[in-house]
């Protein structure tokens, strides 16, 4: 059962590859005791472009790509986005509204969706959120997202802004 | 029936891995729709990108993909995805091995040795790398492979996917072995995901981690299937789905998807749900 659905209220970009998301998370420690799972949900996430890693930190506005991924630093987990690369076709070829995605009203045969259609990604953050709820009286106030370009060569991997393209990020809890 | 074993098991049985290597070499020498090049191109590029990612069809589509790939590796694939008598009987029983990237061994050594060594007996190891557009004389992928190679070589962000000089060979640059997905993550996914959508989303995330962990050609959809480790990585993903299907948590894909055709393959979602009916199984090891 979904208990809470907290959507991004504002975003800011303090450093290369770093985004802060302020969240209003109206849950006190007593409510938290009833929660069995918490997910950070990324909706309509684009995969066009390069592959990248998305590292998530809770209540740590100073987190960057160099921050150690430890509980002490508020590290909550990571996602890797497997990029489809750049478009090899003409304009519109990789748009999810291109002709591959057109459906008939009553199709005789169901068809595959466009391969670059935006996707949903879920990062289960239950242990990290549990630590936050027990450590901070005001609970979770900031989610810091650090995006690192996962270039084919490790030496070329670096924090980069603009990689994350998604319609909505929300925190969902289940009891 | 093909029995898909772990790579680790194959590596501990010398003749088996040599037969697999020979089957790959033969597969790569075929220049029509039954050859390695066609399958590698079908996943991403140069031909139209077919593979659905981020969709409930991710697991069914790749199961169909691996099924026909394995038939072709066994020299049992005929025209229009028909099954024929093996052209090379010595490869007829070769099963695709699965790479358990969450194992303690993988977290120590990283890539499996049989896929990592560049040469075997003084010859290039066909499981270590592939040439993009090897069968450029044929229509299915050859027309577009030059375009793909050119795009990759002229985009600085894509440096390291393939070699800078001809022939265009796939490259890798694997990360620290301990960055591979962990057994605890697999356990969580298998035991706690109670809907097909949650399961496929979670498995695909592990899948993405491994693609990018390998680096090089594997880190980008259009080139990834040219790397032979792609097939053993996806075999592991398919195995995880099979294990979950046999668990008490298992659920089928949504009913409205059951009749979806997994193009370009002539199979529907419903037809790939039971691997026993498809004629293969998974085992850790096999004793003759």
Structural write-up:
The complex is a heterodimer of chains A (175) and B (288). Chain A has 175 residues and is mainly beta. Chain A has one domain (2-86, 115-174): Jelly Rolls, CATH 2.60.120. Helix content of chain A is 8%, strand content 36%. Chain A has 2 helices and 10 strands, in the order E-E-E-H-E-E-E-E-H-E-E-E. In chain A, strands 2, 3, 5, 6, 8 and 9 form a 6-stranded antiparallel beta sheet that branches. In chain A, strands 1-10-4-7 form a 4-stranded antiparallel beta sheet, covered by helices on one side. Chain A starts with a strand and ends with a strand. Residues 1-10 and 97-109 of chain A have low confidence and may be disordered. By secondary structure, chain B is mainly alpha-helical. Chain B has a single domain (2-282), classed as Orthogonal Bundle (di-copper center containing domain from catechol oxidase), CATH 1.10.1280.10. Chain B has a two-stranded parallel ribbon. In chain B, strand 2 (119-120) and strand 3 form a beta hairpin. In chain B, helix 8 packs antiparallel against helix 9 (196-214). Chain B is globular and about 50 Å long. The model of chain B has no long low-confidence stretch (mean pLDDT 89).
At a glance:
Chain A has 175 residues and is mainly beta.
What are the defining features of this structure?
heterodimer; A: 175 residues; mainly beta; Jelly Rolls; six-stranded antiparallel β-sheet; four-stranded antiparallel β-sheet; 2 helices; 8% helix; globular; disordered N terminus; B: 288 residues; mainly alpha; di-copper center containing domain from catechol oxidase; two-stranded parallel sheet; two-stranded antiparallel sheet; 3% strand
Q: In CATH terms, what is the architecture of chain A?
A: Sandwich
Determine the mean pLDDT of chain A. 78
Query: What series of H and E elements makes up the topology of chain B?
Result: EHHHHHHEEHHHHHHE
Distance between the termini of chain B: 14 Å
Q: In the CATH classification, which architecture of chain B applies? A: Orthogonal Bundle
- In the CATH hierarchy, what is the class of chain B? Mainly Alpha
Helix content of chain B: 40-55%
- The CATH homologous superfamily of chain B corresponds to Di-copper center containing domain from catechol oxidase
Biggest interchain interface, per-side counts: A-B, 37 and 52 residues
Strand order of the largest sheet of chain B: 1-4
CATH class of chain A: Mainly Beta
Structural domains of chain A: how many: 1
Note the gap between the termini of chain A. 6 Å
Beta percentage of chain A is 35-45%
Low-confidence stretches of chain B are none
Shape of chain A: globular
């Amino acid at each position: 059962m979904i208990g809470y659905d907290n959507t991004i209220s504002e975003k800011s970009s303090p450093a290369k590859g770093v985004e802060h998301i302020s969240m209003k998370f109206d849950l006190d420690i007593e409510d938290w005791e009833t929660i069995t799972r918490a997910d950070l949900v990324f909706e309509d996430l684009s995969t066009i472009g390069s592959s990248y890693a998305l590292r998530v930190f809770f209540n740590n506005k100073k987190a960057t790509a160099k921050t150690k991924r430890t509980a002490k630093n508020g590290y909550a987990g990571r996602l890797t986005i497997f990029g489809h690369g750049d478009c090899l076709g003409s304009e519109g070829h990789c748009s999810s509204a291109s002709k591959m995605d057109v459906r008939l009203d009553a199709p005789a045969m169901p068809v595959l969706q466009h391969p670059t259609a935006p996707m949903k990604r879920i990062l289960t953050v239950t242990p990290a959120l549990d630590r936050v709820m027990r450590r901070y009286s005001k609970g979770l106030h900031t989610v810091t997202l650090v995006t690192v370009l996962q270039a084919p060569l490790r030496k070329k991997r670096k924090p980069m802004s603009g990689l994350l393209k998604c319609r909505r990020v929300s925190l969902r809890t289940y009891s | 029936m093909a029995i898909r074993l772990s790579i680790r098991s194959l590596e501990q049985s010398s003749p088996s891995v040599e037969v697999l290597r020979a089957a790959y070499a033969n597969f790569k020498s075929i220049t029509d729709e039954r050859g390695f090049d066609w399958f590698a191109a079908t996943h991403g590029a140069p031909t139209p990108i077919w593979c659905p990612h981020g969709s409930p069809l991710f697991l069914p589509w790749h199961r169909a993909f691996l099924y026909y790939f394995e038939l072709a590796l066994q020299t049992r694939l005929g025209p229009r995805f028909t099954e024929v008598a093996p052209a090379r009987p010595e490869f007829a029983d070769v099963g695709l091995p699965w790479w358990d990237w969450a194992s303690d061994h993988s977290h120590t050594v990283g890539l499996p040795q049989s896929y990592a060594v560049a040469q075997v007996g003084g010859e290039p190891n066909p499981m270590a790398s592939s040439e993009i557009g090897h069968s450029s004389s044929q229509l299915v992928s050859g027309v577009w492979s030059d375009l793909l190679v050119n795009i990759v070589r002229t985009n600085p962000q894509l440096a390291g996917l393939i070699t800078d000089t001809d022939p265009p060979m796939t490259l890798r640059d694997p990360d620290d072995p301990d960055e591979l997905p962990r057994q605890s993550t697999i356990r969580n996914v298998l035991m706690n995901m109670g809907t097909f959508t949650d399961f496929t989303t979670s498995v695909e995330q592990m899948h993405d981690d491994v693609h990018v962990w390998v680096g090089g050609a594997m880190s980008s959809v259009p080139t990834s299937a040219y790397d032979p480790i792609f097939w053993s990585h996806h075999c592991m993903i398919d195995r995880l789905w099979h294990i979950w299907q046999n668990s008490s948590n298992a659920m089928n894909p949504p009913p409205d998807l059951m009749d979806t055709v997994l193009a370009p393959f002539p199979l529907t979602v419903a037809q790939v749900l039971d691997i026993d009916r498809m004629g293969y199984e998974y085992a850790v090891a096999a004793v003759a």
